[in-house]
Amino acid sequence: MTVALAIPCFIDAFFPEVGIATLELLERLGVDVVYPQGQTCCGQPMANNGCQSAAAGVEAHFVDLFGDFDAVVMPSGSCVHHLREHLDAVPQTDRVRHLRAHTYELVEYLHDVLKVSDFPWAEFPHKVGLHNSCGTLRSLRTASMSELGETPFSKPMDLLRGVRGIAFVTPARPDECCGFGGTFSVAEDAVSGRMGLDKVRDHEQAGAEYIVSADTSCLMHQQGCAKRAGVPLRFIHIAQILNGARA
Questions:
Q1: Which InterPro entries match (predicted)?
Q2: Residue 179 has pLDDT above 90, yes or no
Q3: What number of other Cβ atoms are within 10 A of residue 165's Cβ?
Q4: Crossing angle of helices 56-66/94-101, nearest 10°?
Q5: Containing domain of residue 106, as a range?
Q6: Burial class (CB in 10 A: 0-12, 13-18, 19+), 231
Q7: Is 178 helix (H, G, I), strand (E, B) or coil?
Q8: What pLDDT, on the 0 to 100 scale, is given for residue 187?
Q9: Residue 116 pLDDT > 90, yes or no?
Q10: Is the pLDDT confidence value at 14 over 80?
C-alpha cells in the first residue's frame, strides 16, 4: 500500500516539526509514504465559513494530487473531517468518492488500519494530559464522549500506552472544547480566549506537564492562552511522542 502524506497548511507554515515526525513515524512502521509536491489547502477554512464556491479551486487541486492513492493520511482531524464529509464544492466523481473514503486521520490510521500497539523506540517520562479536539472526538469518534455516557474508549490513549515512561492525568472536564474552533477564535476572541484559559488551567490542576493532542490547531490555541496567562505547561503533538521525542 502506498500512502500519500497530506500536511495541513498551518502545520506546514508554523509547525513543520509535526509534519516531519508524522513522516518519520510512518516510515518507521514500514509504510511506503509519498509526499505530493504542490499541495496547498484542503478547502476547510472557506467551507466552514459558508464560502463553498471559494473552496472549489483548492478542493479540485487536492483531488488532482491525492485522488489516486491507496490512502491519504493527515495529522489533523478537522481537515480529515472536511475531506470525508464536506468535500462537495467539486463534482462527485469516482476519484472524489475514492478520496473521501480513503482519507484517514493519523491516530485512526495507526490504530484501525496498521493496528499498532507498541512503539519500542519511544520513551516519554512525563505526566501528560490528553486533549481530544471536538472534530476528532465528535466527528471521527476516535474516543468516547462523556456526555453520552457510553463505554469509555480512546484510540490515542491506546497508542500512547505503548510508550515507555509516560504517565497520564485527567482534567476535570476532559471533553470540553478548548475554544479554538478555527475562525471562531477570531470572531469571538474574548470567549475563545477564556475557554482556552479554562482548558489549560484544568490540565494544570490535574498535574499535567504536557498537553498532548492529535490536533496542532488546538495545541496552538492553548499554548498561546497558557503563555499569556503564565501557566507553565508544554505542548506536543502525538506524532512527536510516538516517533520518539523525549521533550
A1: Cys_rich_dom (IPR004017)
A2: no
A3: 10
A4: 80
A5: 2-114
A6: middle
A7: coil
A8: 81
A9: yes
A10: yes
Give Cβ neighbours of residue 113 (< 8 Å, ≥ 6 apart): 71, 104
Strand partners, 105: 74
3 state SS of 140: coil
CATH code of the domain covering residue 166? 3.40.50
Question: What pTM was computed for the model?
Answer: 0.94
Round to whole Å and give the CA distance between 127 and 18: 20
b/e code 17-29 from CB counts within 10 Å (16+ = b)? bbbebbbbbbebe
Beta bridge partners of 129: 169, 211
d(CA 192, CA 187): 9
Pair 143, 176 in one domain? yes
Q: At a CB cut-off of 8 Å and minimum separation 6, what does 84 contact? A: 100, 101, 103
First to last CA, the chain: 32
The pLDDT assigned to 49 comes to: 85
For the record, the C-alpha cell of 157 comes out as 490513549
For the segment 123-143, the average pLDDT, to the nearest whole number, is 94
On whether residue 189 sits in a domain, the answer given is yes
The structural domain count of the chain equals 2
Residues 131, 99, single domain; the answer is no
Query: 168 pLDDT exceeds 90?
Result: yes
18, 77: one domain:
yes
How confident is the model at residue 125, as a pLDDT?
Answer: 97
